[in-house]
Design goal:
Length: 270
């Protein structure tokens, strides 16, 4: 390694270490010690790439990045220790308990109730351990939305996804019209209409989840449209997808970028 390469590597490590301290709340991040006896280079690469390269990029706030990571890890359902770490990290960078819980409720739409329930179990463990935070108010169910669920969901779907969302529902009419109705009533009438997260944040975490799941390209395209429709930018879409390379792997991120490219081209041609 040349002196220039070593200097660059050191800069990335120090930048990543400072950011990891901010997210993790520890002077000496546990990932370094936990891997010291078996794969110290992976610990270093986690700091350099995951934090020094990716999370330090402009384009998203740390709060947005942490909610995206929490949603993706909960949706994948195979990384409970890392999910707990990033729920804790979300609190450290200014996310509220309510935002984290609402993000995990939102997971139920895209990864199912078991993933959402397991995510909430991890959140409970983290919240119970955080004696440094103000005591939370007793959680209470959100006020029930008024009006017909289908009408409310249809209006929310039109607001977020517009024509792309309508096409999804129309495609189900000849085979599973009840599934289309459930999408409108539950996903949009019940979940998207809840307080706790604004529509832009909901679409950000949805793009993160659909990228991380890696098997839902059509739905990812719909929600990239949706994020752009509610105030997101192409830069933010690309940043969310790029971040997922660290949590779901490069193939998932590359496939998602292909979907994003098609969405951007479609919108620029309209």
């Amino acid at each position: 390694m040349t002196n220039t390469q070593a200097s660059t590597s050191n800069d990335r490590f120090e930048r990543g270490l400072e950011l990891l301290r901010q997210v993790g709340g520890q002077e000496r991040p546990a990932v370094l010690d936990s891997l010291a006896d078996i794969a110290p280079d992976l610990g270093r690469l986690t700091v350099e790439f995951g934090y020094g390269d990716i999370l330090s990029r402009p384009g998203l706030t740390l709060r947005q990045r942490q909610l995206a990571t929490v949603s993706a890890l909960a949706a994948m359902g195979n990384a409970a220790p890392q999910l707990r770490f990033h729920i804790d990290g979300a609190l450290n960078v200014g996310c509220t308990r309510e935002e984290i819980v609402e993000t995990l409720i939102h997971v139920s739409v895209y990864a199912g109730f078991p993933a959402a329930l397991n995510g909430l179990g991890a959140a409970r463990e983290v919240f119970d351990a955080r004696t440094d935070l103000p005591a939370p108010a007793e959680p209470a169910p959100a006020p029930a939305p008024t009006g017909d669920r289908f009408e409310r969901g249809s209006a929310k779907l039109a607001e977020i996804d517009g024509h792309a969302g309508e096409q999804v529902i129309a495609s189900l009419r000849d085979i599973a019209p009840d599934l289309g109705r459930y999408i409108i009533e539950y996903s949009f009438g019940d979940i998207y209409s809840r307080p706790g997260l604004d529509l832009k944040t909901r679409e950000m975490v949805t793009v993160a989840m659909c990228t991380a799941l890696g098997s839902v390209a059509p739905q990812l395209g719909v929600h990239i449209h949706g994020l752009l429709n509610v105030g997101g930018t192409e830069t933010e879409v690309v940043e969310i997808i790029t971040q997922m390379a660290g949590y779901a792997g490069f193939p998932a991120a590359l496939n998602a970028i292909t979907v994003a490219r098609a969405v951007f081209a479609e919108r620029s041609g309209n």
